[in-house]
What we know:
By secondary structure, this protein is mostly beta strands. It is 6% helix and 52% strand.
Amino acid sequence: MSDKKLQKEGYEIIIERSSVTDDDLEHKYLAKRPIAEIIDATGNKTSMQCGTESASECNSIQEAVNASKTGETIKIIRDAVILSSKEAITIPTGKDITIDLNGKIIDIYNDVFINNASNIKIIDSSNQVDANGDIVVDGTGRLKGNSVSQTLISNSSTLELDKVIIDTGIIDNLDNSTFTINSGLITGIIQNTTGTININGGAILK
């Protein structure tokens, strides 16, 4: 596997040099690159329990979701490729949080990216919108699907989008759920049966 591919999949190549006798020894190994940090309600970065360790950044979005508290924001800090083998991110009931794409691209290949059972808001703080909710400054961040039949978000509770670009794929608003679009651009399909959809601004293209 090439260094470039490893970096896209969330690893970085780290080079360490140490002196043993008169020779420099080069050690090349892989380390997981953090993908998210948590911002508290006052706007400060927090330290959290990510997996089995206490850290200021998490190596997976699911770890950040598990560590976050109601009212906090999960801020994405690098581009990422979500492989087809990855399980969906699960947001359980009572986890009322915001996910900020922060100008980053999440390139999604698994069948379902997010299963939401709580009240979540997805934003991109790098984008700017006009009075109609249309994006006028594109900060490049987006959720990018790779198939028109791929479910990017399955919503069984409350989902709100603001300043977000969603490129290809399905948003599935399940029965008795609420999906609100305040601003941004969705290129894909919104599935809805007995749920509620509120469109306050932005654009939806099929």
